[in-house]
């Protein structure tokens, strides 16, 4: 049986066998176009298809085949049969495992490109062999890929849920509330604070729902459900333009299937539809 993805830090000694190459130009991933579906190209090296990498990172193996991430300059030309696609639009074309490896690749490339120099002394950082780390030969400072935890929460009040519209959302859709954890805060406190700050609503019965890596650039979205405990909706008009209680059968325009936001809303709708 072919094995699924195994994360590894130490690259294979010889790179003569082809690998799955996750080639990115910003958020645009190089894919093999297979009609409705897409796949990751199996290549000897991006150079063999005329693409020059700025950065290359070994990721591990998928189905026993090595996986690599590569960053290339902007506005690349894809070879025949392939194209560059915004990773946020690939969830229906690429299988879930490849999509998550792409997220890993994007996150690590971003980290590596942002850590060329030491934060302490300004010297050049060197990759620590066979580890996901960089080190300063001058002062010993070490850098590891950073993950920024953010909560995302669906607040329920009987058969209604609290959704808000932010100026950051493309296409004017409504979504559940989200925000980054602050230093010294538990995730439950982050949920309470974000909902209070963004909508004026108090919540209780906070329950873990699930999580999703979100490498734009380095988040981990941690999903929760919560129950209405009090308060009236008020919004600041800048961070949040509008917030409303929506009945499960009268939802506004909501986010696409790729996001955990949508999984939370789908869970809420299914629960009430089946009553
Ligand atoms: Zn240093």
Q: How much β-strand is present in the residues? A: 35-45%
Roughly how many Å is the radius of gyration? 21 Å
Q: N-to-C terminal Cα separation, in Å?
A: 41 Å
Principal-axis shape equals globular
Number of helices: 3
Low-confidence stretches: none
Fourth CATH level, the homologous superfamily of the largest domain: Nucleoside Triphosphate Pyrophosphohydrolase
Could you walk me through the main structural features you see in this protein, from its secondary elements to its overall organization?
The protein is an alpha+beta fold and 275 residues long. It has three domains: 6-114, Nucleoside Triphosphate Pyrophosphohydrolase, CATH 3.90.79; 117-142, no CATH class; 148-273, Nucleoside Triphosphate Pyrophosphohydrolase. It is built from three helices and 17 strands. 28% of the residues are buried. The model has no long low-confidence stretch (mean pLDDT 94). Bound molecules: zinc ion. Zinc ion is lined by residues 118, 120-121, 123, 136, 138-139, 141.
């Amino acid at each position: 049986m072919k094995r699924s993805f195994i994360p590894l830090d130490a690259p294979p000694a010889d790179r003569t066998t082809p690998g799955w190459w996750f080639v990115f130009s910003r958020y645009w991933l190089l894919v093999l176009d297979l009609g409705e579906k897409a796949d990751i190209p199996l290549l000897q090296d991006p150079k063999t298809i005329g693409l020059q990498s700025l950065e290359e990172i070994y990721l591990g193996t998928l189905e026993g085949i090595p996986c690599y991430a590569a960053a290339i300059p902007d506005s690349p030309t894809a070879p025949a049969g392939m194209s560059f696609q915004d990773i946020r639009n690939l969830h229906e074309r690429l299988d879930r495992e490849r999509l998550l490896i792409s997220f890993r690749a994007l996150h690590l490339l971003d980290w590596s490109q942002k850590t060329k120099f030491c934060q302490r002394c300004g010297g050049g950082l060197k990759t620590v062999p066979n580890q996901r780390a960089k080190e300063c030969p001058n002062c010993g400072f070490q850098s590891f890929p950073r993950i920024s935890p953010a909560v995302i929460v669906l607040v329920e009040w009987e058969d209604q849920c609290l959704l808000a519209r932010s100026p950051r959302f493309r296409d004017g859709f409504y979504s559940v509330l989200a925000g980054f954890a602050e230093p010294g805060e538990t995730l439950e406190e982050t949920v309470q604070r974000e909902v209070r700050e963004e909508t004026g609503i108090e919540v209780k019965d906070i329950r873990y729902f699930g999580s999703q890596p979100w490498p734009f650039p380095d988040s981990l979205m941690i999903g929760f459900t919560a129950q209405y405990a009090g308060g009236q909706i008020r919004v600041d008009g800048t961070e949040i333009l509008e917030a409303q209680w929506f009945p499960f059968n009268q939802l506004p325009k909501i986010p696409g299937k790729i996001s955990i936001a949508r999984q939370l809303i789908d869970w809420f709708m299914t629960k009430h539809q089946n009553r």
